[in-house]
Amino acid sequence: MSHNAADRQLIQDAIARYAWGFDTADFALLGEAFTEDATSGGVVTGTSIAWGPMRGRDEIVAVLASIRRAQTDQRRHNIGSFLFEKQSATTASVRCYLDLTSTENGTSRLVTGGTYAADLVKQGETWRMSRLDAVLDGPF
């Protein structure tokens, strides 16, 4: 496995583009995090709640934008504890933890926790996710 530290930072940046894009309703930024043919989906542990698979950047952005626009609170994705499972010069697979917080009417709370699993590819000098899947610990 390659251990290029600069690429690892850029891989984490791709996941941050997704989080910042969603949280700030900057859907162009969110879209930059994904390849054109990306897939995404998720499940809530212990429930029948699931979403996806969404196929393609346009569908991913459209679905996530619809979800975000329906929310009245301010969400914040707090992502960390990155575990690189594979990494080459042009591909990577990574898992990380998620704590999702919400602030509404001056009150902040933890909405849910969980994990993300992502596959990424390097396109030119930019890393993008070709797959992002979520496993949440509880409903959001």
UniProtKB/TrEMBL annotation:
Residues 5-132 form the SnoaL-like domain. It comes from the Bacteria. Coiled coil: none annotated. Pfam families: SnoaL_4 (PF13577). InterPro entries: NTF2-like_dom_sf (IPR032710), SnoaL-like (IPR037401). This is SnoaL-like domain-containing protein. It comes from Labrys wisconsinensis. The lineage of its organism: Bacteria, Pseudomonadati, Pseudomonadota, Alphaproteobacteria, Hyphomicrobiales.
